[in-house]
Amino acid sequence: MLTRRRGIGAAATVAAVAFIRPAPAISFAPRSVSLYNTHTGEWVRTVYWADGHYIREAVRDINWVLRDHHSDEVRPMNAVLLDVVGMLRDRLESREPFLVISGYRSPTTNHMMAMRHDGVASNSFHIHGMALDMRCEGRDLSHVRSAAMSLRCGGVGYYPRSAFVPVDCGPVRCW
User: Fold this and answer.
1) At what angle do helices 56-65 and 79-92 cross, to 10 degrees?
2) H-helix segments, the chain
3) pTM across the whole model
4) Distance, first Cα to last Cα, the chain
5) What burial letters (b/e) apply to 70-101, b meaning 16+ CB within 10 Å?
6) Could you give the CA distance from residue 13 to residue 20 in angstroms, rounded to a whole number?
7) 28 burial class (0-12, 13-18, 19+ CB within 10 angstroms)?
């Protein structure tokens, strides 16, 4: 016999199950990036994830190339950001390196930049190792932006006059 309380409970359960999405299958395919820091002239092309884990030496090399070039401070870059960059590379079908204008920024550097330039957030994702300003050799900047937006993995900006696209692993948004 179905009481009102059980009926409501059953309806709530059915509704909750309808909103459950199956978990995506985890791919164990290697993940790689190719980055060139436009300020230091340093580059890294590496597989940073394989066999179900991040490769410590590769991630260390990536963090070095993406350091604050004003102070040489290194901060671990967010692993999700590395995956976003890797997916963007695949989406663009490019083997050319991303030209990095800015990776990690220390709070001091970020403050200095915010004082000099419009559009620099006082609590930028760069401070937390969660953002890159970049462009891709051989790809139109608007194409890089569109490809990044199609991933829906974080924020994507567009600065055609300065020739870069900011990408972060924060909330999905665009500017």
Assistant:
1) 80
2) 4-18, 56-65, 79-92, 107-116, 141-151
3) 0.81
4) 56
5) eeeebbebbeebbbbbbbbbeebebeebbbbb
6) 11
7) exposed
Q: Which two tokens stand for residue 17?
A: 């199950």
Structure token pair of residue 99: 């030209």
63/40 Cα distance (integer angstroms): 13
Find how far residue 46's CA is from the centre of its chain: 17
Inter-residue contact 150 to 92 (CB < 8 Å)? no
pLDDT digits (tens), the chain, 175 positions: 556 555 555 555 555 444 454 444 567 899 999 999 999 999 999 999 999 999 999 999 999 999 999 999 999 999 999 999 999 999 999 989 999 999 999 999 999 999 998 878 888 999 999 999 999 999 999 999 999 999 999 999 999 999 999 999 999 999 9
DSSP SS3 for 31: strand
C-alpha 161/C-alpha 101 separation (Å) is 14
